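We treat protein structure as text, and this decision shapes the records that our systems exchange. This encoding replaces a full spatial description with a residue-level series of whole-number codes. Below, we set out a record of this kind in full and without editing:
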Amino acid sequence: MSNAAALKTGTAKAKRLIEDHILNQILIPTAKGLIQAATEGRVALGHNMTGNTINSYAAGVYANGVLVHIETSAGSIPNPLRRKLGRGQRFYAGSQRWDGETQEHTFTAQAGSNGTMEAERSIAFLQSHKPSANGFALVVCNGVEYATYQENEMNIDVLTSNFDYVKMFAPSMFKPLPE
């Protein structure tokens, strides 16, 4: 084998090792950690009437524009109690909540939903998302239609703390290669 061929083979192997390390040692564990933190944070804050929002967290890891891993909260926690509330539907005082508490006040949904019980909407979004074809991407989402409403109108943290956490700590996960 010529020196040029050996260098080409070695470079390709090093590239695969680096990509494998980034995916399996950094991005996939980060995705798992973010979903776990979002789930635990949501449980701690107690905003879980039906359990649909907490069951709809998902993170997708992409390599060169291709979705290579999906992490979800569904399956690691109890399923939702019922379908999502649609605009105007009520969750009555005295009802059993997903979080084990009893609902204190009747809640009337102000945002619409498709009335289902699933994490599939999050997964479908990740499957349809098209990040850059070069490099890596980590996308965290929540599939309930009213997540933005919960964040903006009800002041309930759905994804904001995840975003803030990644912004603060993600740079420390990557170190430059020695020269």
